[in-house]
Write a structure and sequence with these properties.
Length: 508
């Protein structure tokens, strides 16, 4: 499907076209990404047979009618929601995608806009530019269209030289930079507001960014000589998870918190053993407090020492609609969500509402898009819904092991400890934590805004293998054709190159 047909499909689905794009001639310096009509587009997508990531739209017919019903649902349940794409200023898809995910975080959006109205005008910063961009979207009369984030992008480049070039950049690096910058700006404003006569607050002040995104890990280190435990709190705004082939998301979380033995050059300096000698120790990370919004970064770019460069990991990692933090990762005596289970209160439960996807085969080129769930990102709504459904009973959910056998259903629950848990399955209130389980997913590809069928979400999980063996020149076997034709050599098909990279979960 050519880009013009995609735009026509988008216009017919939303009942309004995107605004004219005046930035159609952006240069693309990555060398591996083809720029078309003010947006980075991957030059090839072998995993979908040339259809690219837009193949789920089809050309009219049933696919279009299915999307039309989704848009009708959006117009009746989310009258005040706006879905606006962003212009691309030359490989700025990493910025556009992260900002779309943050805009979909309703509490963050609301607190940012309220801060803009309440605070006195200050000098320009990323905080003020982002607030103006959000306000520009919310003030639009139309439901969808295109907005130019030129002022915000200029501020990004002014504040960090890493993002001044037109080269492909990492979305996770930008997310870290943006969140830390917002926190620092808010803390500076808070210090300026305090007078010298005010007593120091008994509790540490936190910005609204920290109140929403910040959690706390406890690093527990047990000396294997004296068996005393040392604890240290480590706040975080997002978690970076190592990934493995065909691993579930909760398995990645378990690996993140897995205990490790510190020995040899990594020995722990124990203050209780002989005045501070180095001893072998056992260290483990646990959640001391879980954030309202759990932002997860899947570490798909790995440095390969033998090659001397980074490579992209195309491993299949399903990201379920509902995720519960593994019970063994919660520090003893820490917060639970109040729901009852076989072992007492259950760990916090989250539901997925935004995904930043990386398209491409390597870390130095490619394209980012963002998927958001309409009507999601509101932790207050989720909490109310979860409390209302918690009394309906509990049940078992599919195990992590089940996720590796066949393509999973997107509306699933992750966070079960063993395969035996999948036996005698019954309905669970976990799925009901989703305030609108039938809400549509909306795809933001720079200035393009599309409604995506929910079942298409699984295409971004990754590949179970590096690619199936196929006959050269097409799908087939190594057997020869009729008339004694020689067999075609088997070759490996190219792996899927569209992968979930940043995941945003709202606490129920």
């Amino acid at each position: 499907m050519v880009l013009g047909q995609i735009r026509s499909a988008a216009a017919s689905l939303f009942g309004t076209g995107t605004a004219n794009n005046n930035n159609n001639n952006n240069n693309n310096n990555s060398g591996a990404v083809q720029t078309q009509n003010n947006g980075e587009r991957t030059a090839q997508n072998a995993s979908s047979g040339g259809g690219g990531m837009f193949s789920f739209l089809g050309v009219g017919g049933s696919a279009a009618s299915k999307n039309s019903r989704s848009v009708k649902s959006l117009s009746t349940t989310e009258e005040n929601e706006k879905f606006f794409g962003f212009e691309n200023f030359g490989n700025t898809c990493y910025v556009n995608s992260v900002v779309q995910a943050l805009y979909a975080t309703k509490e963050f959006r609301g607190r940012l806009l309220a801060h803009k109205e309440q605070e006195a005008p200050t000098e320009e910063s990323l905080l003020t530019c982002l607030a103006e961009l959000f306000q520009q979207i919310t003030n639009q009369r139309r439901k969808t269209g295109t907005i130019s984030p030129k002022k915000f992008m200029s501020r990004v480049r002014a504040d960090n030289e890493l993002f001044r070039s037109y080269m492909h950049q990492d979305a996770h690096e930008f997310l870290n930079f943006l969140m830390n910058n917002l926190c620092e700006t808010l803390e500076t404003e808070h210090r300026k507001m305090r007078t010298g006569d005010e007593p120091e607050p008994q509790t540490h002040w936190r910005s609204f960014v920290q109140e929403i995104f910040q959690g706390c890990l406890t690093s527990e280190t047990k000396c294997l000589q004296c068996e005393r435990v040392t604890r240290r709190d480590e706040p975080f705004l997002d978690l970076s998870l190592d990934i493995e082939p065909n691993a579930s998301l909760s398995a990645c979380l378990r690996k993140f918190g897995q205990a490790e033995v510190l020995r040899d050059s990594e020995k722990f300096r124990c203050e209780y053993c002989g005045g501070g000698t180095y001893q072998e120790a056992r260290r483990q990370l646990r959640f001391a407090s879980a954030p309202k919004v759990l932002a997860l970064h899947l570490k798909r770019f790995k440095y390969i020492e033998s090659l001397g460069q980074y490579r992209k990991l195309c491993h299949r990692v399903p990201f379920p609609n509902t995720l519960r933090i593994p019970a063994e990762m919660m520090a003893s005596g820490q917060e639970k969500d109040g729901q009852s289970g076989a072992g007492g209160s259950l760990p916090p439960l989250y539901r997925l509402y935004a995904v930043v996807v990386h398209l491409g085969s390597g870390p130095n080129h490619g394209h980012y898009v963002c998927l958001t769930k309409s009507g999601m990102g509101d932790t207050a709504t989720a909490t109310t819904t979860s409390a209302a459904t918690a009394s309906e009973g509990t049940g078992s959910v599919p195990s992590d092991a089940a996720e590796t056998s066949s393509p999973p259903v997107p509306m699933s629950v992750d966070g079960v400890d063993s395969p035996s848990d999948s036996q005698a399955m019954s309905p669970t209130p976990d799925v009901e934590c989703d305030a609108a389980s039938d809400a549509a997913w909306v795809l933001f590809d720079d200035d393009l805004v599309e409604v995506m069928p929910t079942e298409s979400l699984s295409r971004f999980y990754g590949a179970t293998t590096e690619g199936p063996l196929t006959a050269q020149g097409g799908v087939g076997t190594s057997r020869g054709g009729g008339g004694g034709a020689p067999p075609k050599p088997l070759v490996k098909a190219e792996p899927n190159t569209e992968h979930g990279y940043l995941l945003f979960y709202a606490r129920c």
